[in-house]
Amino acid sequence: MKKIEAIIRRSKFEEVKKALHEIDIDFFSYTECYGVGNEKKKKGVFRGSSDTDFIQRLELSIVVRDMNLRKTVDCLLKNAYTGEVGDGKIFVWNIDESYRIRTGESGDDSMYNKD
């Protein structure tokens, strides 16, 4: 199993979510995140500081079976792309164990995408 962490533009979220559902990746989580990078940033107010530069993004966390890794990464690359600086990053980690709390299933059996 692999964990994919993708930092994407907020404006691309609905497109990415729809595309993930189309390839049967129906379970993932996301959080709002802030970062700095090479993109030109607008100054704004963040935690009371008006001179902080930041970029608002979403961080998607997706755990997939090994056989679904390539299609998931390809989907993210295609649908989060704008061609401009600041499109984001994708990181992939190995997952040694997973468990479904409700049933106690472990490993591949605990994953939602059974294909």
Concise overview:
The protein has two helices and six strands; from the N terminus they run βαββββαβ. The protein has 115 residues and is of the alpha+beta class.
Name its key features:
two-stranded antiparallel sheet; 4-stranded antiparallel beta sheet; alpha+beta; 6 strands
Architecture overview:
The protein is α+β, with helices and mostly antiparallel strands. Helices cover 18% and strands 36% of the residues. The chain is built from two helices and six strands. The strands form two sheets. Strands 2-5-1-6 form a four-stranded antiparallel beta sheet, with helices on one face. A two-stranded antiparallel sheet has the order 3-4. Strand 3 and strand 4 form a beta hairpin. Helix 1 packs antiparallel against helix 2. The model has no long low-confidence stretch (mean pLDDT 87).
Give the helices and strands, then pairings.
Blueprint: E1 2-9, H1 13-22, E2 29-35, E3 43-46, E4 49-53, E5 55-64, H2 69-79, E6 88-94
Antiparallel strand pairs: 1-5, 1-6, 2-5, 3-4
Helix pairs in contact: 1-2
Gross geometry:
elongated
> What order do the strands of the largest sheet run in, or round the barrel if closed?
2-5-1-6
Mean pLDDT: 87
Task: Detail the poorly predicted runs.
Answer: none
- Could you give the order of the helices and strands? EHEEEEHE
Figure out the total of helices: 2
